[in-house]
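name: query_chain
kind: protein
chains: 1
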Amino acid sequence: MDVPVTALYAGIFGLLSVLLANSVLYVRLRGGQRPEWQGDAMLRVQANFVENVPLALVILLIAELSGLSAAAVHAFGATLVALRLLHAWGLGTYPGANYPRLIGAQGTFLLLSILSVAAIYQFLQGS
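structure:
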């Protein structure tokens, strides 16, 4: 079973997960030196990451195993990385609603939807 593209993005997201967890720890340890809203925001960044990325990686893996081209898997994976970074930056840097946060979150939902349809399409092509 060969999944070199998904393996790359799983590794990237694993490292990003560690970074986000350490960001939460940093804000907790430096609570008095950071804006009050930032502690909760960093927790939400990590929680949203943990909520969406594993599902996206599973669907990406299924799509790759089903024969989706490496270029398409890279496009999905790289876009997801960019969207999750944008979401983390927007939510962790600015209080309240903002465009980086919105684009990152809604873009992730759109990407998950497109990737899901691509996986279903790959299944139907094989049936």
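note: The chain has a mean pLDDT of 92.
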